[in-house]
Amino acid sequence: MFQFVWSLAAYVLLSCQPIIAQNAFPGAVGFGAIATGGNGGTTYMVTNLDDGGPGSFRDAVSESNRNIVFDVGGYILLKSAVSLSSDITINGQTAPGDGIGIMGGEVSASGQSNIIIRNLRMRQGTLDSDTGKSAFNMGSASTVILDHCSVAYGQWDSVDAVGAINITVSNSIIAFPIGQQFGAHVETGPSTFYGNLWVSAHNRQPLSKDDTQYVNNVVYNYQAGYTSGNTGGNFSHDIINNYFIAGPSTTSPSDGYYQMDSEQSVYAAGNYLDSNKDGALNGAAANVVGDSTVLSSPWESSSESLAKYSASDAVTAVLNSAGASPRDEVDTFAVSAAKSFGTSGTIYESQADTGLSNGGYGTLTSTSSKERR
């Protein structure tokens, strides 16, 4: 049977995206940046939107040491969770048209290591009958980086990282969790959350039961934002130049920091909270983090240099560029809510409640490079 595996040389000729031989990619940050993924391995071209078989995404991620590229754009509808292998790179930015998305099931890196994922849309939603799964699961995984990804409609969590070691989630949109309505759950760590947009979640943005870098994030329409939990243990948190913006679902704006007790050691600087829901970005400094123990300097030496933007400039940068590219209907909707600065936004129970096309998942035009010739 013909194997849809191309040589590295062929990929270099056909793609404008460079293969990075060391580190995840230029500009990668945080604890997951040391990932090399499948760079330097064989390149697998995804040629269809089927849930399995030759040329499918499921087949592409079934073996290690693969650099995965896409000759097709559109949604892949999962019939069951898809499990990633270790030592892979997923280059969603290579997909034509509106890009590539996974819907109706969990994408799982559980127990795997050395994974790079870029420009991938992961949207579980109620098409998945297993309410105990998440949109993206990297439980007990190690050395994982998600960059410019879009995660929505997670039923258990949007991002599950219980037991994960050395992870980064950067420049991504994490929006509209349903079910538990939770953003991300991290245990073990360390973890880095950088430059992300969090929209309309009940809690866990993230839940950090680990040593964490949390820099240049924007959290909108929360009921509880950055959380550690009263039974989380003793951890250190660098919380720098983030902006918390209350929305219609925010009942207590001060819960931008939630369940941060004296067992948590926090360096907080340059953070702002806009609590008045008046349609303008006009918050005030917010660097008192619950009852946590105050650190006079960051616990991680790289945290301050990671803070590329002030909190207000981070709002501009994140709203302009976070998420998968090109920005699609779901992400445009999330960004539009955040840009209302307090006047728009809902915590949903189902993707269908958004009123967006395709049952709430939004429409990604199905196309291939052949159609462009």
From TrEMBL:
Residues 349-373 are annotated as: Disordered. SUPFAM superfamilies: Pectin lyase-like. Residues 363-373 have a biased composition (Polar residues). The keyword Metal-binding applies. GO terms for molecular function: lyase activity; metal ion binding. Keywords: Glycoprotein, Lyase, Metal-binding, Signal. Transmembrane segments: none annotated. Residues 1-21 form the signal peptide. This is Polysaccharide lyase family 1 protein. It comes from Rhizodiscina lignyota.
